């Protein structure tokens, strides 16, 4: 079929600065072709097709900005952060507008499990975490290691990556609220040996790409009592009561 790849079309028309950014826009569900959602960056489009790009939610550079308008690089800058270290095990994932921002230090190809203050030049006041295909339980210790005394953590808890495979349903979705409650408690309790104590948890305002319900947890480095079980119960109940 003649025509351009959809991701290349988005770059050529100024909707994205790079091919990777264009692919992220497509995967976020923001592009339609002839009125239908476009899911494949490599599909061909011609001049006779109506391609529409939906504006970013809230003006953030990614879907993650809506989930973490309580965190993450774009949100942190909007909130007045003077320096943000953007750590990613992959490459080419950071939006061009952030990559070229002088306040952002792009640290690509770094596994968060091995993060250290040597890589970021000293301790941080705040760490935000949005992980995929890895448990938060594996990164609590390195996160605590790069925090200043009394530093805070805002982490996205994703039950689909915390529960065992036998507890994740079709399509990678955890459909049992009891599993959510168990996972949430276990993940936050696992942070305590690293010197992080949980102070709050709330449902993410946006579900994961497959419809998974997720949670934002707030922790601080230092001593503390942790969260009462009722707080976890309430967070799960609130998440599952949403339409």
UniProtKB/TrEMBL annotation:
Any Pfam family the entry gives: FtsJ
One GO-annotated biological process of the protein: methylation
GO molecular function terms listed in the Swiss-Prot or TrEMBL record: methyltransferase activity; RNA binding
Domain RNA-binding S4: 4-69
UniProt xrefs under Gene3D superfamilies: RNA-binding S4 domain, Vaccinia Virus protein VP39
CDD domains the record matches: S4 (cd00165)
InterPro entries given in the database record: RNA_MeTrfase_FtsJ_dom, S4_RNA-bd, S4_RNA-bd_sf, SAM-dependent_MTases_sf, TlyA
Keyword annotations from UniProtKB, A to Z: Methyltransferase, RNA-binding, Transferase
Entry similarity comment: Belongs to the TlyA family.
Protein's name in the database: TlyA family RNA methyltransferase
Upper lineage: Bacteria, Bacillati, Candidatus Sysuimicrobiota, Candidatus Sysuimicrobiia, Candidatus Sysuimicrobiales
């Amino acid at each position: 079929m003649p025509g351009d790849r959809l991701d290349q079309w988005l770059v050529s028309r100024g909707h994205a600065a790079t091919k990777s950014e264009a692919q992220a826009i497509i995967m976020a569900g923001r592009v339609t072709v002839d009125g239908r959602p476009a899911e494949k960056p490599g599909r061909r489009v011609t001049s006779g097709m109506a391609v529409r790009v939906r504006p970013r939610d809230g003006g953030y550079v990614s879907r993650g900005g809506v989930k973490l308008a309580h965190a993450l690089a774009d949100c942190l800058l909007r909130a007045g952060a003077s320096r943000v270290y953007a750590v990613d095990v992959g490459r080419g994932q950071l939006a061009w507008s952030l990559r070229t921002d002088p306040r952002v230090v792009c640290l690509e190809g770094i596994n968060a499990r091995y993060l250290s203050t040597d890589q970021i030049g000293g301790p941080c006041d705040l760490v935000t975490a949005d992980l995929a295909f890895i448990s938060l339980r594996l990164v609590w210790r390195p996160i605590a290691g790069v925090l200043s005394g009394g530093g805070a953590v805002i982490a996205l808890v994703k039950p689909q990556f915390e529960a065992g495979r036998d507890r994740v349903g079709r399509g990678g979705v955890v459909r049992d609220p009891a599993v959510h409650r168990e996972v949430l408690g276990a993940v936050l309790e696992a942070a305590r040996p690293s010197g992080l104590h949980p102070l709050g948890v709330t449902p993410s305002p946006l579900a994961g790409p497959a419809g998974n319900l997720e949670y934002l947890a707030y922790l601080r480095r230092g001593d503390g009592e942790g969260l009462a079980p009722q707080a976890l119960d309430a967070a799960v109940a609130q998440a599952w009561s949403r339409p």
